[in-house]
Amino acid sequence: MLSIPWGSIFSRIGIGRSTADDRARPVALEPPPLANADRAQLEAMTERLSGMLAARVLDADSEESALAEIDAVLRAGGIAQYMRPVLAIASRSEGFAALVEQAQTPPDMSHISPEAARLALEAWELQRHSAGLFFEDLREMAKDAEFDAFLMEHRRDPMAFLHELPVEIAELALASERGRAAGFTLYARGLAWFEVPLSRDLMLARLYWQGAWAEARLFASLLPDEFPTSMVPTADRLDLVAIRDAHRAAEARAEALFAEAEASGLDVYEPTTDA
Amino acid sequence: MREQDAGWVTHRSDGDPSEVLEHPGVVVRVISDGRGIVAQGTGTERDERHVRVDPASPDGRALRLSKPTFFYTKPLVVRPESFRATVVCPPDLFIALRRLVGF
After folding, report:
1. Which of A55, A105, B18, B80 could form a disulfide with B34 if both were Cys (CB 3.0 to 4.6 A apart)?
2. Nearest by CB to A258, which of B9, B77, B92?
3. Contact flag B78-A268 (C-beta cutoff 8 Å)
């Protein structure tokens, strides 16, 4: 499971804007040293991340506070911290094979309730398809300078997509990132040291499924020929050309609004008409 | 001032310039000179398209609101010295406000 740098992906087709220069909400990344790029190392990293998430999310006293904990982990770069070594592994051919193998192996969900397990495995099936496409993309990018931009997106602000991308994309990207965190937490439920109420499983499985579905919609919109309509129907795909045009129009309106405000000389400017 | 910051817009009263007023706000867009487009909240409900945030809701608690607050489609442009950031706006509310004000 990976955290996807959505801003970098959509910027390649001219959607969104980078706020790297005017915004700095730095994330402390301390990637572990890479000694061996192999499956065991990936599993160890997955366990460490899952344990960290589970310790926060599973202790929450309600669904809404569990979601708030997931958001806090995402914002603090908890998953982004995991990304750097994973991407480093992916950039090497033997590491890439291990990553693909990990993504193709169904997770053990025998420790959660049957209903939650059904949802989680459906989510995994959806995510497996998206992940395959993303890994191919990663392998290509690892060969050039774009790879560094990918890493930097997570270093500066893992949630930058919330304000950099059009809202239609940002809300699906948010669901995707939350879903991934929920998936990691479900994985941690299988580790011996976590004992939690089963009711929390269903909430996490729902989040995981919603995230996988959102991610599939985004990838199917980006790469329409790579996703069968039986998996993501045409009606559920985004019209990226229309979104790009609307986003550009909004950018032009923002510039005009800033110019109006500047001309007014006011510290707090209220336009007379809607933007 | 950063995108997704929530806090207070401070400005002087039109009637009494010595009086400083504060309204809750969420920054939806910032440009390089530091100014921001801010979705402004008010306690007044009007018959217009809006986003309502109740103080007891998760979003209301995150924004530390003390009463029902209504955000409308018309945003403000605010200089950084007129905005006091207090917390980061929850993601779902931030997206809803971006959609509301159109940026």
Report:
1. B80
2. B77
3. yes
